Amino acid sequence: MRGWRHPVSRCDSLGSGAVFVLASVPTLDGILLSAGRRLLRGGPLRLSAGLLVFLLQFALVIAASAQTEKKPDPQAALRAQEPCKIMAVGFNGGLESPNNRKSGIVQLRDRLNTPEYPGVCFRNFLPYSWPRAYRWLLKSFPKHGGRFTREEVERGPRVIVMGHSLGGMTTLILARLLGGRGIPVELTVQLASFGLADATVPSNVKNAANFYVHDAIGRWTKKHVKVKDPAATHFYGNILVTGFDHVSVTRAPQISDLVVSTVRSLLAANATPAVSPANPDPR
């Protein structure tokens, strides 16, 4: 139809609502994806109904996130045992609980928050809670405004940020906020990233990787992420993950291998960032 644009382009203008919700569904993925395809094929007559469905779903997600994040963190006592040498933030998909045991990010958190990795503090957040993640990280730095000095950064923990789906976008949002305070990020990992602000890795990130899949939702996820400054950021690349879909990609072994090898390198080097053969190429 002349003058009609694809509904996705209109939904994009709504920010983190509308179609974005489809990219983060752990258990209702098949139902919503099927409904979304029917709505997208329906043309302009069904567009308003489709947007209403997505917006209602997004409102339910926001309400649910307020409830799920009130639950006690099972790793809180473990993290309190010693100062954090490495702080890792994992953003789950938009409709997941931060403690969804089927999420590879949650599984990685539980693996790294053990005595085998002393000084590692890994915490999960919903993508809508990136301000909480930002405040959590800043607790380990001096309490003043403005940029931190080099000495203050060196005394602080090393930071890793990763995120799935809508969490892929908030991964880079958080990295940019940290860059504004002079805090480097050792590694960012985007998994089937979905959003409007997830295409360029900021220059305060030292290592970055973007993983994507080919499935029904994959058409809307980022496959061509780039780095702002190639001289400052080692980019593993845009990596296609086969044998996994949008939901299960978080459990791909090459992703956990990359994060764990980075953590081990930082611990072995006394929390000194390094890009070396010890960090395997995740392709």
Structural notes for this entry:
The chain has helices at residues 7-12, 29-40, 47-68, 76-79, 104-112, 130-138, 150-155, 166-180, 253-268, and strands at 86-91, 120-125, 158-164, 187-191, 200-201, 207-212, 226-227, 234-240. The protein has 283 residues and is of the alpha/beta class.
Helices, strands, pairings?
Layout: H1 7-12, H2 29-40, H3 47-68, H4 76-79, E1 86-91, H5 104-112, E2 120-125, H6 130-138, H7 150-155, E3 158-164, H8 166-180, E4 187-191, E5 200-201, E6 207-212, E7 226-227, E8 234-240, H9 253-268
Parallel strand pairs: 1-2, 1-3, 3-4, 4-6, 5-7, 6-8
Helix pairs in contact: 6-8
The best one-word shape is globular
List segments where confidence is low: pLDDT < 50 over at least 5 consecutive residues.
1-37, 43-47, 49-70, 271-278
Strand content: 5-15%
Structural class: alpha/beta
Descriptive key words:
six-stranded parallel β-sheet; 283 residues; globular; 8 strands; alpha/beta; two-stranded parallel ribbon
